[in-house]
């Protein structure tokens, strides 16, 4: 029994060990360079490969910096392939629990071509695999992953720019032309490095994160801190021409923190470039009336077989495949591929994705908006962004529409567009991210304005009266703030009344009636300035009306001030402009005569200040003096006067002085002339 338990424990332990081992890649240093290129990277009888060489680290224990790797059933994306590293590849298998940091103090040099390709000046520990080949097709491609210990999950800020470098250098054999680097970020000339492909999660800035795979934990198939996703190196080539390719990786600056490139086994493809995929998403689908010719012509090919979505197309065995309109997208869209057969043991292939631009069906081409920008002048704002999805019945979600003021304009209109042609304007919609498939589409913008008078109104109402507010005829509905719904309403108090008017196009506008209260004035006071060179009167009134003023009941003025008034009696008329009533009051302007002529002719025979009693100055006292200050006359009665005599004797012609003492304490002094 004891033996059985020990045996079972051993079986369980071995089973667990095998599962753990299968989580990591394995490496094999026993392959020759020729075997790695012909049997692993290319793995096809179609290849014509020569001059294969490899160079790497000269480790004392015989370890290599290049060799074969096996995915070993792990989650690593490649099941097998070639590994080129800046350190021992024996350190490449997981788990990721140690730092690969080989190649120090051993005179392992860098690579000048790599320096030039990446603009480096000090590479170390270069591993280089290079060979010549003659392509059968016009395109080569292969898959790779870049892994590095320099993908630190918790770096210091000064470590963010540390990066090893690698390049896939291609040129025609025997020419002096510069190398072309194929190890670049798709669609750019940017080399793939640690600081050009990096994801989020650290203090270091992201860079082309869509091509970054992950920062690795302990349990990872390789012993590297991070890696890119599977990338494709590719280039157009000339069939039958010999090329030289140099695959090189090196440390930059020093030997620290190893890196590696993994080349997918069998991924080196000598194919034909059938052109860019024709996709709606990329803006280049096949247009409705376009004829597409796919050309797979290859030197030395014996036959061709075209396929759609992997299914052979009957009788399509020529070098070219022609797709002619009219198209049936449901039957014709998909992946078109071609097998190019050079011999019974040599077949290459190429593929292209094709989608067809749908025929757009017009749903609406006239768009109406109410005139809402103040005056009803035929101009308003149109939200073009909300109009765009309404134009077509079947607009693909990724199609972009922009609007222009003419069919040939290249300047898009502002999405919040105010029409520039009164009432009705034609603009043009263009599909801007699909090239050449669609014409411009004329779109009409119509502004619906009110033709009736909708200006605001100010009215006056007399106290106690009722007036009518007329919103105007011809509207579909009326909605007053008084909750009434008729064209005309009656009001009996001042205030602000608004009505919302709607026409038969469902446009609404608000009209405001301001009702101002009015009524007869109350004269509170008449402020008189007299005994001056410019006698005046200010009429002070109270009331809610709008008033005008007159001294004759005929000629009115808006100001309550009257100036340059002669002495005498006046009647002021205060009229409400809104015909609510008229009020009058009498006032007097006082002044003294500047001279008198006591000659008995009945004109100016006496000197007298009139109307003192009309102003309430009955008790005023007037004292008259000659020029020497002698008292001549004292007047205590408002009806009294001076006739130019003193004790019955006529006084001579000269100036005389007076003092008028009013009951309110005011004293007026002046002089006048006696003329005989």
From TrEMBL:
User: Where does the signal sequence lie?
Assistant: 1-22
The record, for Pfam families, names:
CHU_C
Keywords tagged on the record: Signal
- Keyword Plastid attributed: no
The organism is: Flavobacterium tibetense
The answer, when asked if Membrane is one of the entry's keywords, is no
The protein depicted here goes by the name Gliding motility-associated C-terminal domain-containing protein
Q: Which InterPro entries match?
A: Choice_anch_L, Ig-like_fold, T9SS_type_B
């Amino acid at each position: 029994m004891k033996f059985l338990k020990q045996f079972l424990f051993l079986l369980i332990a071995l089973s667990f060990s095998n599962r753990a081992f299968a989580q990591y890649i394995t490496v094999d240093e026993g392959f020759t360079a020729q075997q790695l290129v012909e049997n692993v990277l290319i793995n096809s009888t179609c290849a014509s490969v020569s001059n294969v060489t490899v160079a790497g680290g000269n480790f004392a224990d015989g370890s290599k910096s290049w060799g074969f790797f096996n995915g070993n059933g792990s989650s690593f994306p490649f099941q097998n392939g070639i590994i080129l590293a800046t350190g021992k590849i024996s350190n490449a298998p997981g788990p990721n629990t140690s730092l690969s940091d080989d190649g120090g103090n051993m005179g392992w040099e860098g690579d000048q071509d790599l320096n030039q390709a990446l603009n480096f000046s000090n590479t170390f520990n270069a591993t280089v695999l290079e060979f010549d080949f003659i392509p059968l097709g016009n395109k080569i491609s292969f898959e790779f992953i870049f892994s590095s210990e320099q993908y630190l999950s918790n770096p210091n800020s000064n470590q963010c720019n540390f990066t090893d470098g690698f390049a896939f250098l291609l040129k025609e054999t025997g020419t002096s032309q510069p190398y072309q680097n194929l190890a670049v970020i798709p669609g750019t000339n940017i080399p793939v490095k640690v600081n050009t492909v990096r994801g989020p999660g650290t203090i270091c800035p992201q860079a082309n994160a869509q091509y970054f795979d992950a920062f690795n934990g302990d349990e990872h198939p390789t012993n590297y801190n991070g890696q890119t996703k599977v990338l494709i190196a590719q280039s157009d080539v000339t069939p039958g021409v010999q090329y030289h390719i140099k695959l090189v990786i090196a440390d930059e600056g020093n030997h620290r923190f190893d890196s590696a490139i993994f080349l997918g086994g069998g991924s080196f493809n000598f194919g034909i470039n059938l052109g860019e995929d024709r996709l709606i998403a990329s803006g280049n689908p096949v247009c409705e009336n376009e004829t597409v010719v796919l050309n797979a012509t290859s030197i030395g090919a014996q036959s061709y077989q075209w396929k759609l979505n992997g299914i052979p197309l009957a009788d399509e065995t020529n070098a070219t495949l022609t797709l002619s309109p009219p198209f049936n997208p449901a039957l014709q869209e998909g992946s078109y591929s071609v097998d190019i057969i050079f011999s019974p043991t040599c077949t290459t292939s190429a593929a292209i994705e094709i989608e067809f631009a749908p025929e757009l069906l017009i749903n609406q081409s006239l768009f109406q908006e109410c005139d809402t920008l103040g005056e009803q002048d035929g101009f308003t704002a149109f939200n073009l962004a909300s109009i765009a999805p309404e134009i077509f019945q079947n607009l693909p979600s990724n199609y972009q529409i922009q609007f222009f003021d003419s069919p040939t304009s290249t300047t898009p209109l502002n999405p919040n567009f105010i029409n520039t042609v009164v009432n009705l304007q034609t603009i043009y919609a263009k599909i801007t991210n699909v090239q050449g498939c669609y014409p411009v589409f004329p779109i009409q913008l119509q502004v619906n304005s009110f033709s009736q008078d909708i200006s605001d109104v100010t009215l006056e109402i007399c106290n106690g009266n009722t007036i009518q507010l007329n919103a105007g005829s011809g509207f579909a509905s009326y909605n007053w703030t008084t909750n009434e719904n008729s064209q005309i309403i009656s009001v009996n108090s001042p205030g602000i009344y608004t009505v919302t008017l709607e026409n038969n196009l469902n446009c609404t506008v608000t009209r405001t009636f301001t009702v101002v209260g009015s009524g007869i004035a109350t004269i509170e006071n008449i402020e008189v300035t007299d005994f001056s060179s410019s006698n005046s009167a200010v009429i002070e009134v109270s009331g809610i009306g709008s008033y005008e003023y007159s001294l004759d009941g005929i000629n009115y003025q808006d100001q309550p001030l009257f100036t340059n008034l002669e002495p005498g009696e006046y009647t002021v008329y205060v009229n409400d402009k809104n015909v609510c009533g008229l009020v009058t009051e009498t006032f007097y302007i006082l002044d003294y005569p500047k001279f008198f002529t006591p000659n008995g002719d009945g004109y100016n025979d006496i000197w007298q200040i009139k109307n003192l009693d009309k102003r309430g100055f009955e008790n005023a006292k007037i004292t008259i003096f000659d020029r020497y200050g002698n008292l001549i006359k004292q007047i205590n009665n408002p009806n009294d006067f001076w006739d130019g005599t003193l004790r019955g004797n006529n006084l001579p012609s000269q100036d005389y002085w007076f003092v008028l003492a009013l009951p309110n304490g005011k004293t007026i002094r002046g002089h006048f002339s006696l003329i005989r």
